[in-house]
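go over this:
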Amino acid sequence: MKLSRVLFLFFIYNLSAQQKPIETVYFDFDKYDLTEPQTKIVNKFIKSIDTAKVESIQIYGYCDDRGTDDYNFKLSHYRVNTIQNLLLSSGFSQSKIVILEGKGRVVVKADTVENLYETRLRNRRVDLIVVKRNSFLKKDYTSFKDKLKVGDKIYLENILFDMGSARLTNNSKKELDRIALTLQKQKNIQFEIRGHVCCTPQIYSDAIDRDTKERKLSWNRAKTVFYYLSSRKVSKNRMRYQGCGNKFPLKRGDSYDRRVEFLITKI
């Protein structure tokens, strides 16, 4: 089958032991719907997922560089919705889909790309990031049960945020509820909540919060977690919060950098 006739490709690959698997759906130019054979392929994959082992799924949509930003932004959202609807119609729980984001077009310089057609085809896609249940348990709140020392960092890799947002997702709230229960039992621990961001230009140290329009997104993420834990009966006297901007990327992908972490300050 010629590459020019490939409307849909589906593949899975593992990035590393510490990264999430990514599933990618490719679309034809200026399209957001799938043909019946393509839909069957996706549904077959969905049925192969052991939902009992899936904590959540994130869906990101992209377009190639042709067309306006506004048009491609909408088109990328439509592509995301197409895949979400297939997941839901196949019985996948809405509560497990924690991020739906159309990222618009992927800009390329036509005169610098060796095979522009193939590059554009790869950019017309939707990426699905699947988080397996308990995949980070050894790194998050259960670490409170281990022997800690001042200066230790606890990465809350299940507490992730949407792009440009400091609002907690339903999945993050559930995780924080479990963390709060552990903290109530470990009353000797004091800590700093550190917020982080991704995807900001190098000239800026922080990102803009869509809700407040301030360039304090990392601070707002940390503050959101601070007040949520306080609402779950974790004393404010044990906590403080700080925004770290984009200074400490984990280099595992943008999703991981839209995060918070705990720094142990006193035991």
Remarks:
- The chain is about 30% helix and 25% strand.
- The beta strands are 10-13, 22-26, 54-63, 97-105, 125-132, 153-160, 190-195, 239-243, 259-266.
- The helical segments are 36-48, 69-89, 116-123, 170-185, 217-231, 254-257.
